[in-house]
Amino acid sequence: MKTKHTGYGTTAAALAAVLAGAAMTASTMPASASTHSILIKAVLPPGTGAITAKDNAGLLSLTNAYVRAHPGVTVQWLPNSSDNITTSNAQLETEAAGGDAPDLVWEQYGAVTSGELPTGLLQNLKPYLEKPNPYVKGNKSWLSLFSKSTLPYMTSTNGNIYVVLGSNVETGMFYSKAAFAKAGIHATPTTWAALMADLAKLKSAGITPFLFADGGGCDPSWYERLATSSFLAGQVNSFMVDRAQVATPLDLAVGIEKGVISMANPRYAAVWKLLGDMRPYFSNAGTSYDACANPSAVSPPLSPEPLLIQGKVGIEWGGSWWIPQLDSAGFSGKYGVFPEPVITKATSPYATATVTTGLIGGPNGNGQWSVTSQKADHTMTPAKTKVVINFLEWLFTPPHLGYWLEINQGGGDIPTEPAAPTATVPGLKALLPSGKVPTVVLPVTGGLLTSASSTQGLRLIQELLAGTLTYSGFSSQWQSVLTTATQTWATANHVNLNKYK
Amino acid sequence: MGYSQPRQPEQVQVAGTRARPYRRALASSKTLPDFLSVLRRTRGKSSLASPALITLLLPSILLIGVFSYYPAVRSLIGGFYQWNGFSPPTYVGLAQFNTYFHSPTFAPEARNLAILVGGTILITVIAQFSAAEVVYHMPRRLGNVAKYVLIAPIVLPPIVVIEVWAYLLLPDTGLIDRLAGALGLPQPTWLSSPHLALLSILLIGFPWISNLGFLIFLGGLQNLSREILEASRVDGTGALRRVFVIDAPLLFPQFRIVVILSGIYAVQNFIPILLLTNGGPGTATFVPGLDMYQSAFQNNQYGYGMAIGTLLFLLMLAFTVVVMRALRPRTA
């Protein structure tokens, strides 16, 4: 995933908070924990190595403090070598089939809230979240500690919560200052039309204008999310059944069923026409890169960051975690970052000019955990569940969350609890939304409905951008993916979509 | 010394009598049931009940049964069930086979597989047979050295070979592109171009010699009848003509096994594709094996994955039968 860097500015203060928290434990420990020895098997965030690795130093010290304060409780952190949620969940399901799943598992909201994971594998955490977090003085509901924009991501269609989310990321366009200077670009674009004009200038200057990294799901799903939310901004109310900030899988399925999210709707079709229009400016090596790949990857998909550093590409689409990575690579001051430009009518007659800053950002893979059921994990007795939840509450106490996130990602990740301390990372502020974020329509390529549709969608985008599929061919196949994914999701979740027509 | 005590005739006879039935049975059987059947005929039932024989065979049979036959049979059955790996499976008959045949990726998968199988067989047979001929005709000592040098890379783990080729083929930073750039030549995106990606996958392992097929061909050449070779020499047959009119026809059994093994290898070996292109760009390198893997282990469609696996098994079976018949030795 993402790499580490330095920046332990708040470590001392956070450690003090940890100790203060530890002092509270006598009154917050579940009764069962004091009488029985309990082993909690927990899965680490992916790509962070063992619990003793530098990235996990914060998590380790918090765990040690917890274990010291809770005699009889042991926590065994399991390294997570998976590089995506689908392979991770495949392993989880195999373990769960034998009743041998870990207690605290790394999850991602898409796989959980879509209902893609088999029913009964994870526990509903909502009853615990509605109670006070015992480690936060005066708290009446643990849920109230999370930012309101995070809650829709945690909530499944049935209203239950099967995953707690620890951190957010933001996205933005990273550019090489040298490339911009060579192309005669003196200001960053604020509209999509200006972006297209700058891409043309970069191309004229002999620089590959843009690397759309479609070897992984990040750039494609970001684009789909940005453009769909923007073009359909005036139509979202017709399918947002749950009236939430972020479209749930049910909303998306209803939107598809109603024909709003359909290639027959010119506003939705404009999403893909615009991407096709950008093709002349894209690097033709895009499928070998993934914006979410580790910069040290040596085989595809590679991180596009080195190409920006080497001046081979003008603009790349990355995330807030890139800032510390680029800085630690010695590129500090040689790059800039700007939020995704607004799509206006100068680009498409169907544009709504919606400000999309902060629209793509959201929960990432760091600090996302679920608790397994007794069916999936035979050791998960009700008494043990209480202890596991108590441990989660400890980790999600705002000072603790901010503390380990800062060490783990050098401040590139933003805690989901506003009370948690956030690291000051130069450039991050430009990516944060300043006003209300529009309603977010989550993408098909993000695996919201099914992971099969995500894979198929990504292949179609690659073919469209490689020129091996015409727009009309893409259009009919994309529509087929939308329809099939909706039917599969509705069947798997026992949802009758006819009642929403 | 000068004098050696002759062995007792009885001892020789006893030892020979004990060993012979097993050797005969082994020589005349191709499978375990054949072996047991021949042994039963020659030795009677009492020897079969030998605890030592049963003890020796049982662990192997059990392990092969558990780790090879059970998953294979389970997979054949699983194709008829929709199963996400956790919830109880649901019987769906042939629906998943039908879905696969009608999926938009079926045609490109079939096309890519045909290219990979055909390409792999062609380059394997040509490269390994040519290398075996060259080594066979070298002076003995030099030939031995060449043999070991050519076959030694077989010990490299396949993942290492793939990673080396990843480094060679990477866009912008790969060795091949760098060399091309230094020479002022175009720098193609080997793994990202829909027209080059499959070719790049076939390139992996170049010059394709360090493999079992090379040893099979070399062994075949070394066992050719000296009389025939001598006769061809007396008749003044040239080296090239000898390869085509004597060596190749006499090595039909070797060609048959190499074609079958390399064909099956091409069908099964989707690991380079998984690691380097993930089937892309689009469907340019997408093959049934990768579809099977992604369906089962990424999309939780285990039943669908097993259905694809069953089809692949049938394909390989049919391929083997066809090759066995087409390349059977034709003697006067």
Principal-axis shape of chain A: globular
CATH architecture assignment name of the largest domain in chain A: 3-Layer(aba) Sandwich
Oligomer: heterodimer
The chain-level mean pLDDT of chain A equals 86
Q: What do we call the CATH homologous superfamily of the largest domain in chain B? A: MetI-like
When the domains of chain A are counted, the total is 2
- The number of distinct helices of chain B, counting runs of at least 4 residues, comes to 17
Structural class of chain A: alpha+beta
CATH class of the largest domain in chain B: Mainly Alpha
Q: Helicity level of chain B, as a percent range?
A: 55-70%
Low-confidence stretches of chain B: 1-18
Order of strands side by side in the largest beta sheet of chain A? 7-8-6-9
The end-to-end span of chain A amounts to: 41 Å
Give structural attributes.
heterodimer; A: 501 residues; alpha+beta; D-Maltodextrin-Binding Protein, domain 2; 4-stranded mixed sheet; 18 helices; 12 strands; 38% helix; B: mainly alpha; MetI-like fold; 2 domains; two-stranded antiparallel sheet; 2 strands; globular
Descriptive notes:
The complex is a heterodimer of chains A (501) and B (332). Chain A is of the alpha+beta class. Chain A has two domains: 11-167 and 364-415, Periplasmic binding protein-like II (D-Maltodextrin-Binding Protein, domain 2), CATH 3.40.190; 171-360 and 439-500, D-Maltodextrin-Binding Protein, domain 2. Chain A is built from 18 helices and twelve strands. In chain A, the strands form four sheets. Chain A has a four-stranded mixed β-sheet with strand order 7-8-6-9. The two termini of chain A are 41 Å apart. Mean pLDDT of chain A is 86; it is low at 1-27 and 31-35. Chain B is an all-alpha fold and 332 residues long. Chain B has two domains: 9-93, no CATH class; 106-285, Orthogonal Bundle (MetI-like fold), CATH 1.10.3720. Chain B contains 17 helices and two strands. Chain B has helices at residues 9-28, 32-43, 45-48, 51-78, 95-101, 106-136, 140-151, 158-169, 175-182, 197-203, 212-222, 226-234, 239-250, 252-268, 271-276, 288-297, 302-326, and strands at 81-82, 90-91. In chain B, β1 and β2 form a beta hairpin. At the A-B interface, α4 and α17 of A face α8 and α16 of B.
